[in-house]
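Researcher: I'd like a candidate sequence for this fold, 157 residues long. If you have to choose between options at a position, lean toward the conservative one.
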């Protein structure tokens, strides 16, 4: 399976050491199967005056033997999981988590919920009609070791 990762540098050998905590699905190496989504993500680096590189990777079919959690919708289970991960309270041991990304529009809703400004029911109502984007979070080195770096290209604004 081909996956993409956008960064301010070429990442040929991803690892957990350089991953940030408290993200949507916890600490891990984040990728997407949607090339256009990865290219759009480069805007974050341009806004900071940085370069952006799109890395292409192959994820071995052996990944199906790992512990995987998949979210097909922005539903209560997804919201609770993201809430726990962003608070640093997730205790699950998934190797890979797959599901929707909390982009700017989605983030506004979950941020209001996390702050206690709207109820869980109101957040779920707002998320109900949103079509999830796609992210893969490789949360263990065992999962990351199934990636093969193929190429990278600089994204020009």
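Model: Candidate sequence:
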């Amino acid at each position: 399976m081909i996956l993409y990762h956008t960064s301010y540098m070429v990442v040929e050998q991803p690892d957990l050491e350089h991953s940030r905590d408290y993200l949507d699905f916890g600490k891990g190496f984040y990728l997407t199967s949607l090339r256009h989504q990865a290219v759009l993500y480069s805007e974050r680096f341009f806004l900071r005056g940085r370069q952006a590189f799109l890395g292409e990777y192959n994820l071995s079919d052996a990944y199906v033997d790992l512990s995987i959690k998949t979210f097909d919708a922005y539903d209560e289970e997804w919201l609770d999981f993201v809430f726990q991960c962003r608070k640093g309270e997730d205790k699950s041991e998934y190797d890979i988590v797959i599901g929707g990304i909390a982009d700017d529009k989605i983030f506004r809703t979950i941020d209001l919920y996390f702050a206690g400004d709207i109820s869980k029911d109101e957040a779920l109502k707002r998320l109900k009609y949103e079509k999830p984007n796609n992210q893969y979070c490789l949360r263990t080195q065992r999962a990351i070791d199934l990636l093969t770096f193929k190429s990278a290209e600089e994204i020009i604004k």
